[in-house]
Amino acid sequence: MTENPGLANPLAGSLRDAAVGMVALWRSETPPGDPTSPDGAYNLACLYASRHDLEGLAPPGSKQGADDETAVRLLEVAVLDDDLATWMTSDPQLAKFRTRTPFRRRFLPEPRTDFFGLPPVAPFATALKTSDYASVERLAALPETGAPLGPVMPLAPHARASVVGLAKLAQSLRPLPALASYRVEVLHALCDLGVTTPSQMAGLSRPAATAVRGAVVRAVNDRVRPPMGQDEAVRPGDLSAWWYSVV
């Protein structure tokens, strides 16, 4: 069947004009938009954050690092709108930007610090905090079986070992400058993988241990902001050095 050129061509022309207009906008050194309103700031941020993702879109001489910092400043205005703050975390146009350091350092949360919020510990947090074992130090000093916690956790013999094991791991992370601030995040990631005690770490095969370490590094770095001067919150070499000191 022959297409009606009177219907097809205007549509094709409109799409072509729109595409040309978008490329011109990306390549503009001073793109239009209101940077003082959340909506305007968000649209401008998306432009600066993504125009280096495809070759030829950014203006000649522009630098991705500078554009990323501009995008961060604009997003700081945009996130005053709760809907935009939520959309920013899943907007496909910002997918690559969310992996880069300027975004992660500004918008990812600080690391969690509450040992008693760890999933194996949280159900018993109140009982532990009102017992003789109200600190990580006291818990870490117990035998790994956790037998002395019987009166505090009478119906959870298996959980006792996890609580004590996690406390021992937390204490082993505390003296390490590269990991101390992220120790609870590291433990959350290990819990998600079903590893809660030093003996479980030691019992993993070499390939399994390598996989667990890699998963922990990815989980922590995907969730929390890195410190100043680093691109990662937890570096693989630092985690491996700690791991081998434990096992």
Description:
- By secondary structure, this protein is an all-alpha fold.
- The chain folds into 2 domains: 10-107, no CATH class; 115-246, no CATH class.
- 55% of the residues lie in helices and 0% in strands.
- The protein contains 12 helices and no strands.
- It has helices spanning 5-27, 38-50, 64-78, 82-88, 101-107, 125-129, 136-140, 157-173, 183-192, 198-203, 206-223, 236-246.
- α9 packs across α11.
- The chain is elongated and about 65 Å long.
- The model is unreliable at 1-8 and 10-26 (pLDDT under 50).
Helix-strand blueprint:
Elements lengths: L4 H23 L10 H13 L13 H15 L3 H7 L12 H7 L17 H5 L6 H5 L16 H17 L9 H10 L5 H6 L2 H18 L12 H11 L1
Features of this protein?
247 residues; mainly alpha; 12 helices; 0% strand; elongated; disordered N terminus
Q: What composes the largest sheet?
A: none
Treating each run of at least 4 consecutive H or I residues as one helix, how many helices?
12
Helical content class: 55-70%
Order of helices and strands: HHHHHHHHHHHH
Principal-axes geometry comes out as elongated
The overall average pLDDT, rounded, is: 88
Structural class: mainly alpha
| Low confidence ranges | 1-8, 10-26
Integer tally of domains: 2
- Residue fraction in strands: under 5%
Strand count: 0
Distance between the termini: 73 Å
C-alpha-based Rg, rounded: 25 Å
